[in-house]
Amino acid sequence: MVDADKKVNVPPNFIRNIIIEDLERGKNEGRVHTRFPPEPNGYLHIGHAKSICLNFGLAHEFEGLCNLRFDDTNPLKEEEEYIRAIQEDVRWLEFDWEDRLFFASDYFDQLYEWAILLIKKGKAYVDDLNADEIREYRGTLTKPGKESPYRNRSVEENLDLFERMKAGEFKNGEKVLRAKIDMNSGNLNMRDPVMYRILHAPHPRIGDEWCIYPMYDWAHGQSDSIEGITHSICTLEFEDHRPLYDWFIRELDVHAPQQIEFARLDLTYTLLSKRKLLKLVQDKHVDGWDDPRMPTISGIRRRGYTPAAIRDFCERIGVAKSNSVVEISLLEHCLRENLNKTAPRVMAVLRPLKVVLTNYPADQVEELDAENNPEDPAMGKRKIPFCRELYIEQSDFMEDPPKKYFRLAPGREVRLKHAYIIKCEKVLKDPQSGEVTELHCSFDPDTRSGSSGEDRKVKGTLHWVSAPHAIQTEIRLYDHLFKSPDPNDVPEGEDFLSNLNPDSLEILNGMVEPSLQNAESGMRFQFLRHGYFCVDNKFSRPGKPVFNRTVSLRDSWARIQKNQNG
Ligand code: ATP
Ligand code: MG
Fold this sequence. Notes:
By secondary structure, this protein is α/β, with parallel strands linked by helices. The protein has 3 domains: 4-101 and 218-332, HUPs (Rossmann fold, 3-Layer(aba) Sandwich), CATH 3.40.50.620; 109-215, Glutamyl-tRNA Synthetase, Domain 3 (Glutamyl-tRNA Synthetase, domain 3); 352-455, CATH 2.40.240.10. Helix content is 26%, strand content 22%. A 7-stranded mixed sheet has the order 10-23-24-25-21-22-11. The protein has a 7-stranded mixed sheet with strand order 19-16-17-18-12-15-20, with no helix packed on it. Strand 1, helix 2 and strand 2 (65-70) form a beta-alpha-beta unit. Helix 7 crosses helix 8. The longest helix has 16 residues, at 46-61. The two termini are 41 Å apart. Residues 1-6 have low confidence and may be disordered. Bound molecules: adenosine-5'-triphosphate and magnesium ion. Adenosine-5'-triphosphate binds next to helix 2, strand 8 and helix 9.
């Protein structure tokens, strides 16, 4: 489990209340045992983080256990790469399944035996209808189902055919095993669901041992039962599957986990469907599953998110019984709160404009003191070089500024952070384009920060870097991957791809202070007046960091809240 100080507090919610009641009644001998059951057919996303925090969080709170179990029943879509990545992501969120890493494929023998038991009880049969026919016969919510002509095969015939399915005598799709329940049920899941299908395909974990594979609905509940899970927490779309899971458990007469459904996380400007995320990866709309614009755990990790911010977010959104969409600005707010306390502040110029201090000695370099985080004096200070040639931000100068512009302009003064007050004396321009190329300024030697001259006040304070000392680096700015709050909201005949934001990535050549030269992959900083940035773990080279903007400083969530509170 996570350290006590890192643990997720699951705030009161209906699932927690059910567990408390169960414990009071002495159900499950006072045990609480949950699991996080991903299918290894893609990378985990922030929606899965909600489920992970809930399952591991509840187990932690009630001194129970939480398993990690891969529901690996579909060899066509599942890969070893996903199994590895999912474990890395859960660990990164700082949850620990200890020695309880399981796979549904561990239970294939048991599931096969149980299928035979159901056949012997007359509760399962081999069907020769093909997939289309099965769909056709199933009917709809308004149309009753129709029984398959093979539904009443004898137990002996079913046993024989099922064994031969397993032995590889039939081709893909030629036969299936179905539960014999009720073709007139109001719940379509109960109309003789398929339990096994024939798939001549090797399994990523157990090779070509099997050519029949259990369907998810047959494997999932039984896997929970085998592991002694007490509370099977899942998302709302499985509510209609619960009667089927209960039916299997009853017919097999085995331990009955209690399924509880909650609303899945949905976020504005974000898609949380592995199928659609896979499409973005396969069609190269993004640079892999860990592209910093992806809502995957590996993407937001690369972007610079912290595990603490994600856990805080999952705590704040709570757990409900009906679907809703959460503002992505809340996630960003949690991140800023966390990074504000932990990320050292440094100076970086994203779009440089050269400044020459004409009254500063050409060969002089001063080492100025700069605090690393005013929120936390324990983070100490560092030295930053100051000299005659500097860079400031292009947007911090205007030749003809409007009234409330307090940055640099001809004849105006500003303070350079941690340094001196300077005054703009002359503007140099490109004769052809008219573009400003350089500023000549004077500095006031009596105004050095940290000295008594610090008291002289001017309205604007700018960040800067020393031109000969700065490190030129690639800085990558990100915006939402989708233009619209609901990426699926598209005109008829189009799909979510038409909502892709063409400006979601902007690559700049910036200048950062020299202390960042050896910043290592994953290190996070606040670039003063810009936002939070993280050293990219893919494009950075030793001595040549590349920075991802994690999130800007502007906090639209705080504004939303302020407006709500009047
Ligand atoms: P997707 O629809 O993206 O493919 P999934 O539900 O099929 O997701 P699984 O690997 O089966 O993905 O999910 C593992 C667990 O995570 C399940 O218990 C599932 O209910 C939960 N989960 C998946 N997506 C979300 C979400 N958006 N919010 C909360 N929990 C989720
Ligand atoms: Mg699923």
